[in-house]
Specification:
Order of helices and strands: HEEEEEHEEHEEEH
CATH architecture of the largest domain: Alpha-Beta Complex
Strand order of the largest sheet: 3-4-5
Number of domains: 2
Shape: elongated
Number of strands: 10
Radius of gyration: 20 Å
CATH topology of the largest domain: Homing Intron 3 (I-Ppo) Encoded Endonuclease, Chain A
Largest sheet: 3 strands, antiparallel
Length: 161
């Protein structure tokens, strides 16, 4: 796979750091025109096809602004996957990126981030630096989540909860 350079990227696309949108500077296919917004949403993220290669718009924004590809993942500070404004993007490791979770996954049995059912009580736990931190069991999921939030705010520097 040939990786696009910043020079080639800037020849093909314009990036508006305030809105986070890319627009075509050239006609890349029969379906696109100069000035069209580039990209489509895939799993909530904006992806842009250039030369047959699909790129995440957030990574292209990083290349556009810094002249180098990000070494790690690109995190959206506000957790909105298609918000590629420059001020909303930051580079970080996968574990740093995961610290920015604000809500429980859709398959959570409790509906609360950091809380799981443990017999007839609710267990709160937090992952930090590859280790699980046990935060106790609680009578309600709300109390367990409250304990999780306190610990998250102390330990997860990348978090915005």
């Amino acid at each position: 796979m040939v990786v696009i350079t910043q020079l080639e990227l800037k020849r093909l696309l314009h990036y508006d750091a305030v809105t986070g949108l890319f627009t075509w500077l050239v006609r890349s296919s029969t379906r696109t025109h100069v000035g069209d917004i580039a990209g489509t949403q895939v799993n909530g993220y904006v992806r842009i096809r250039i030369g047959g290669v699909l790129y995440q718009a957030s990574r292209l924004a990083w290349l556009w602004m810094t002249s180098s590809w990000p070494v790690d993942e690109i995190d959206h500070r506000n957790t909105i996957k298609d918000d590629n404004r420059w001020g909303n993007l930051r580079e970080g490791s996968h574990s740093f990126n995961m610290q920015n979770m604000r809500k429980a996954r859709s398959n959570s049995c409790t509906g609360f981030l950091g809380v799981s059912l443990h017999y007839k009580r609710f267990k709160a736990r937090l992952w930090f630096e590859g280790k699980q931190h046990y935060l106790g069991t609680h009578a309600t999921p709300e109390l367990a989540h409250a304990a999780y939030v306190v610990a998250k705010r102390q330990l997860h520097l990348g978090g915005t909860l």
